[in-house]
Amino acid sequence: MTEQDTATRETAAQLVEAFLKQRREQIAQRWADAPLFRTVFTVSRDEAVEACKGVVDALAEVLAGGRPEDITAPEFATVREQLGHVAASRARGGATPAQIADDVAALRPPVTELLRAEFADPSGVQAGEAVLLLSVVMGTLRLVVMETALSAGEELMERQRQQLLEVATPVIQLWDGIVAVPLIGTLDSARSQVVMESLLEAIVDQRAAYAILDITGVPMVDSLVAQHLLKTVAAARLMGAECIVSGIRPAIAQTIVHLGIDLGTVVTRSSLADALAYALARQGIAIPAPSASRVSPS
Amino acid sequence: MEAVSRPVTAELPIGSDADLSRVRQRVRQAATDLGFGLAQQTKVVTAASELARNTLVHGGGGLMEMTSLDDGHRRGLRLSFVDHGPGIRDVELALTDGYTSGGGLGLGLGGARRLMQHFTIDTTPGQGTTVTVEAWEQGVPTARRGTP
């Protein structure tokens, strides 16, 4: 970039910045009717205009800051939250990220038109420079909106993941001294940590002598899942409780054998009912055998 | 018999725990679509889970290529796990049950070999590792390929 180029660019930046400040009201009025704002601020148009003014101000500041291409420019910080809200409520309304990007792109033509009208010679070099710069900063704005929308999505996912961790691992008291954890889904390291902690706490709280880990809802047991199970069993044992792993389906049993996992030290049962019966019997509680006269209507 | 391989049906990145569960889901879906029975689906998914975790933990990440196969009689699934990690210095040792360099049970590689019908390792120390496994539809009993 030659010295002259830099100079032109600076003047262009100053021009566009001055234009944004001067025509703030007009731009905001036009933008307020664009789908991005109109569909979000349905109650009051004034609110939409205010929001648009905020964005115009931010763009002017970005230009003053001299970094029109930088999506991390601190000048965007003031509108980031608001744009995030706008994008999020568009997304809730069913708009795809591509549509939101299009909505932001639709803000460019009206403001470019206004800018061109400022020049005596709209096809001149100076006008061209200014419009180009405006396009650049509008492109950056589009990226800022997308980035804000995506990071809001990530936050949501992270929160849901955390909630799932808590929700998916209830410890149930089945009988005096017998607790059970029905495991559902894949047992990754984070889940198994939560399971182990809540199970050990329950063993203390309920003074449980038997803990049943039911894996009926676990789609797959690989060596890591098995290792997590074995560790949980070992920890429960240290607390003085005997662990029973139940809900081992035929496909899982075959896989465990092929993998070569040794569950020899663990009491296993095919169903939760069998595991409960085992624990009750070990506690000396006799349950009448399922009635022999169970007749199925034919 | 020469297996006719169709173009790669999917290529999945392996770079995080979330990718592992995506690999499991896609492999289960593919195995279901191919008409594999429940037991075999579980075996294939488990093997994929082991190998994908190896790619992530030992290979530092990589990708899985999934190809559906058809030899005219049966359908099958080929999975290739590719990484550019440190490679395996002693493949025999790595395949030994109970040998681990990552704090696990040391059953992943050998277990995956037992779960699948075809298993090859291509590794160069310092260059990376590619583990390729195949599973075939098990309707009519057929001659076993290689050692189980």
Distance between the termini of chain A: 91 Å
- CATH class of the largest domain in chain A, named Mainly Alpha
- The helix count of chain B comes to 4
Q: What structural category arises from helix and sheet content of chain B?
A: alpha+beta
Shape of chain A: rod-shaped
Can you walk through the features of this model?
Chain B: It comes from Streptomyces cylindrosporus. Chain B: This is Anti-sigma regulatory factor. Chain B: InterPro entries: HATPase_C_sf (IPR036890), HATPase_dom (IPR003594). The complex is a heterodimer of chains A (298) and B (148). Chain A is α/β, with parallel strands linked by helices. Chain A folds into two domains: 150 residues, Globin-like; 111 residues, STAS domain (Transcription Regulator spoIIAA, 2-Layer Sandwich), CATH 3.30.750. Chain A is built from twelve helices and five strands. Chain A has a five-stranded mixed beta sheet with strand order 1-2-3-4-5, with helices on both faces. In chain A, helix 1 runs antiparallel to helix 4 and helix 1 crosses helix 8. Chain A is rod-shaped and about 100 Å long. The mean pLDDT of chain A is 84. By secondary structure, chain B is α+β, with helices and mostly antiparallel strands. Chain B has a single domain, classed as Heat Shock Protein 90 (2-Layer Sandwich). Chain B contains four helices and six strands, in the order ββααββααββ. In chain B, helix 1 packs antiparallel against helix 2 and helix 2 packs antiparallel against helix 4. The mean pLDDT of chain B is 85. The interface between A and B is medium-sized, with 20 and 25 residues.
